[in-house]
Amino acid sequence: MNAPGRTESILYALFVLGLLLPWLWIQINLSINVDIAFLTQSAVYLLDGERMTDAYYDTNPPLSILIYVIPAAITKYGGVPLIYATLGYNMFLVALSAILLHAVLKPFTTLSPVQKSVLLGVYILSNTVAANLYLGEKDQYILLALFPFTLLQLAMTRKLPVAGWAQILTTALAAIFLMVKPHFYIVPALMLAHRIWVQKRQTALFDRDILALAAAIIVYAALLLFWFDDFTTMILPDILTLYASIKEPWVTEVFMMATAAIGIIALPAALLFKTPNKFVMLLLLIGWLCMIPFIIQGKGYYYHMIPAIVFVCCAAALLLSDLIAQPLAKSSKECAAQRTGLYATTLAFALSFYAIFLPYGKSPALTHAEYREMPLTKLVIEACENRPACTFFLFNDMTEIIHQTSVYSQIRQASRFSVFWFLPVIANKENKTLPQGKKEELARKYSAMVAADLQRFKPRILIIGRFEVEAPGKIFDFKDFFSSHSNKISEELAHYAYDRTISLNLQTYFPGTLVADHVVSYDIFRRTE
Predict the structure, then answer these.
(1) 229-234: long-range contacts at Cβ-Cβ below 8 A with a sequence spacing of 24 or more?
(2) CA 266-324-7 angle, 5° bins
(3) Is 188 in contact with 209 (CB distance < 8 Å)?
(4) Does residue 2 register a pLDDT over 60?
(5) For 211-227, what is each residue's pLDDT tens digit?
(6) Which among 448, 431, 54 has a CA at the least distance from the CA of 241?
(7) This model's pTM is above 0.90
(8) Which of 83, 191, 370, 513 gives the lowest tally of CB atoms within 10 Å of its CB?
(9) Strand 461-465 vs strand 519-527: parallel, antiparallel, or unpaired?
């Protein structure tokens, strides 16, 4: 088929934009994702000159925070609310990735203009509507760099003439974002091995894309050694002991189902055409490779699968558009058949994404306005009214709610921890990951940090949730546990008086999600000074 004219390209772009408009309207009003809230707030503290161990002691390595420095700077120095600075940053990266993908695809003559269009259209939909609540997660940033970089590596192997600016930007993004989770280096390693095999030269190890990745690794290693040395010496050892070892047992089942699904999609690509669709097969293979980091991490979070989902959806879109166009070409002009495949496939994926991720046409989460009116947000605002430099402390069993409450109340959470991620191992006597003596040692270490935070911030209000941390059916006693491991905790808690207990149904915080009716009680304590 001939290259589409300018008018036709504009019409398809408007078609994709039209499909995006309902999602965009929802996204603008959607409450901020918890990871983005915490990591961007941490980046603000980084810009303030605070050390990681003092202000944002978390399982995420430093680069996970550095990649949010831009929206943090926009908020800190430009006065733009964090919720809009992060959304703008996220949309900019999606647009930049799509532009780079378009530029990298240009010299691929083995793909028709229609195939390139459907690939780009479904790529954009997969990174917006299908990202759902997790637009702007670290794994999506990795994908936004990895997808165009993978095709750039393929173009280099085939010696295709990609524009110089696109090569530089694509390689720079990959060099930065792939280091966020080094598990994904498995993909460029595969592409390098392919290049060595095709071009029959070992010197491919020194090509500019590989040298760029190596240089970025060296720079990051230097940052970890000399700037974030507290992460490598104090935080990382405990992450490996207390967090990385925790894995959901059903993750393996998800991996096997994903493997089977990818295999099923690969069958028509291999059997229903005169020659196997190698490009589709490559995208499916990379999608499967992106499931390996998912199983290595073992947490089972949806956003850990975003890279695999986008690769597989793009492969399936190419396959579907060809399957629609092939029989139509026998009874009509080939150009018309391919255009039908293009629009039908794009519409099918858009409707599928909306059906899956926007149940009953409703927002999948609270809006900004709704979050400002939530009970805990209003409680914090009321406690800090007319009090400069006021803070609050919220003990929750998950990062959600804590940091959104901070963002929408515009009041700082009085803890260096995103959540007490260390408790499931050190407080649970049934957990045999560590000997009891080591657990006691770590309990004293973290209790001292909690005490130091309470002493430093002097939060106006304590909101202590009742959760089953130690064992099923047993409510974790926050005061008893931490006081028994630090006398300073008792001293700090003596400044607080019990106010009341409130009960909240967590489902009200997570509409449109799988969170079931679950009522949690929170004990409220107010500072007496």
Answers:
(1) 230/51, 230/52, 230/53, 231/52, 231/53, 231/61, 231/62, 234/53
(2) 115
(3) yes
(4) no
(5) 999 999 999 999 999 99
(6) 431
(7) yes
(8) 513
(9) antiparallel
